[in-house]
């Protein structure tokens, strides 16, 4: 039995689980999704992998931009329906050029 089976991660109907990505200093960088293969690749390579819902394919963060995420830790939440990647971020995390995708303040 592998790690994902032991943790009983609850993937949604599309086979995805939300992934919150946080830098080692605690800043939330982004929210993305992973399927089982993306999680397996993340755990085996130490590089953050996700599943693109718009492109319907796996993607390695930084593959084209060079803004890689070196995964330090992978955690699962208490309900087993969300995952947290703690990473060392190289460059920016957001496709807009901002360090974090959470840069727009509402209040």
> How many helical elements?
2
CATH topology: Ubiquitin-like (UB roll)
**Widest sheet, order of strands:** 2-1-6-5
The secondary-structure class comes to alpha+beta
Strand portion: 25-35%
CATH class: Alpha Beta
Give the CATH architecture: Roll
Largest sheet data: 4 strands, mixed
Determine the fraction of residues in helical runs and give it as a percent range: 10-25%
- Report the CATH superfamily: Phosphoribosyl-AMP cyclohydrolase
Q: Runs with pLDDT <50, length 5+? A: none
Report what the structure shows.
The protein has helices at residues 3-7, 36-45; strands at residues 17-23, 28-34, 49-52, 57-60, 69-76, 83-89. The relative contact order is 0.23. The chain is 14% helix and 35% strand. It has one domain (3-82): Phosphoribosyl-AMP cyclohydrolase (Ubiquitin-like (UB roll), Roll), CATH 3.10.20.810. With 107 residues, it is an alpha+beta fold.
Detail the topology: elements first, then pairings.
Layout: H1 3-7, E1 17-23, E2 28-34, H2 36-45, E3 49-52, E4 57-60, E5 69-76, E6 83-89
Parallel strand pairs: 1-6
Antiparallel strand pairs: 1-2, 3-4, 5-6
Descriptors for this entry?
two-stranded antiparallel sheet, 107 residues, four-stranded mixed β-sheet, Ubiquitin-like (UB roll), single chain, alpha+beta
Describe what is shown at a glance.
The protein has 107 residues and is α+β, with helices and mostly antiparallel strands. Helix content is 14%, strand content 35%.
């Amino acid at each position: 039995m592998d790690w994902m089976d032991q943790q009983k991660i609850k993937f949604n109907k599309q086979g995805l689980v939300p992934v919150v990505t946080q830098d080692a200093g605690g800043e939330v960088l982004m929210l993305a999704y992973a399927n089982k293969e993306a999680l397996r690749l993340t755990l085996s390579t130490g590089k953050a992998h996700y599943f693109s819902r718009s492109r319907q394919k796996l993607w390695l963060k930084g593959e084209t931009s060079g803004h890689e995420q070196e995964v330090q830790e992978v955690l699962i939440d208490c309900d087993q329906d969300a995952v947290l990647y703690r990473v060392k971020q190289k460059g920016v995390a957001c496709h807009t050029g901002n360090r974090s995708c959470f840069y727009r303040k509402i209040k």
